[in-house]
Amino acid sequence: MTKPTLYLFIRNDVDSMTPGKAIAQGSHATDDFEINVRMAADASVEWFNTLREWRDGGPAGRALVFGASGSQFEHLKILCELYESHAPNQKNILWGSYTDPTYPLKDGALTHTIPFNSAM
């Protein structure tokens, strides 16, 4: 059996995405992933067990973090949507993206809070 891996893609094309914010966005994305697995109507007991092993730090899995520009981020999202639509019976991938509803985007001296798709 292949070890489960959580791949986190964090936007790296925005100046206001400091290392601290990147960590927070990755944490939010991980929390959302766990919630999505728990709420998925078609999630199997195997997914729940794998998630528990991964979360508890057992030998079952790992996490890898990557930086991605806005266009790379959109391409990854399209690939996941294509996979999901062409292989609906495959249960070996779950995915989602995280939108921070009040992301602080700096614009010179001004800071705007906007919804921002920051992690996947």
Task: Kindly summarize this structure in a few lines.
With 120 residues, the protein is α+β, with helices and mostly antiparallel strands. It has helices at residues 19-39, 45-55, 70-86; strands at 5-11, 62-68, 98-107, 110-119. The model has no long low-confidence stretch (mean pLDDT 75).
Overview of the structural elements:
This protein has one domain (5-119). The protein is 41% helix and 28% strand. It has helices spanning 19-39, 45-55, 70-86; strands spanning 5-11, 62-68, 98-107, 110-119. The strands form 2 sheets. It has a two-stranded parallel ribbon with strand order 1-2. The protein has a two-stranded antiparallel ribbon with strand order 3-4. The longest helix is centred in the first third of the chain and has 21 residues, at 19-39.
Number of domains: 1
The helix/strand class is: alpha+beta
Tally of separate helices: 3
The sequence of SSEs as H and E is: EHHEHEE
User: Widest sheet: strand order?
Assistant: 1-2
Uncertain ranges = none
| Assembly type | single chain
Mean pLDDT: 75
Distance between the termini: 24 Å
SS elements, strand count: 4
Spatial extent as radius of gyration: 16 Å
Shape: globular
Beta-strand level of the residues, as a percent range? 25-35%
Helix content bin = 40-55%
Largest sheet: 2 strands, parallel
